[in-house]
# Entry
Amino acid sequence: MDFRWVLALVVALGAFSGSVTAVPSEAARREIAALIGALDGSSCRFQRNGSWHDAAEARAHLQRKYEYLLKKDKVDTSEQFIERAASQSSISGKPYRIACPGQPEQTAAAWFGARLQALRQPR
# Structure
C-alpha cells in the first residue's frame, strides 16, 4: 500500500469528521442565552410533564438541556435549541407549555419562536 495514499485518506477522514461537529456561532449563542433569559426574567410559568414550574426552575432545566446538546454536538442554531431543548420533554415527548399573566397559555415552541423573531427584528 502506498504511504501517500494512506496519508491522504487519514487527512480526508479527519477533515470530514471535523466538518460535522455542531458549534453554535457567537450570534446563535447570544440568541439562545437571550431566549433562556427571557423566560427567567418573566413572571411566566413553565409546564413540563404535567407539572408547573416557575421561571427560575424552567431556566435551570433548559440550561441543562442546552449544555447536554452542546456536548453531544446536537445544536448549532437558535431554531435547533427551540426544537431540541425548549419544545418538548425528551423523556415523555409531551410538549412544554408556557402560561404568562394576561396572556393565553401556549406551547413553549410558539412562545420561544415569537421571542426569537422579536430578537431578530431590526431596532
Summary: The longest helix spans residues 3-19. The longest strand covers residues 45-48. The chain has one domain: 23-119.
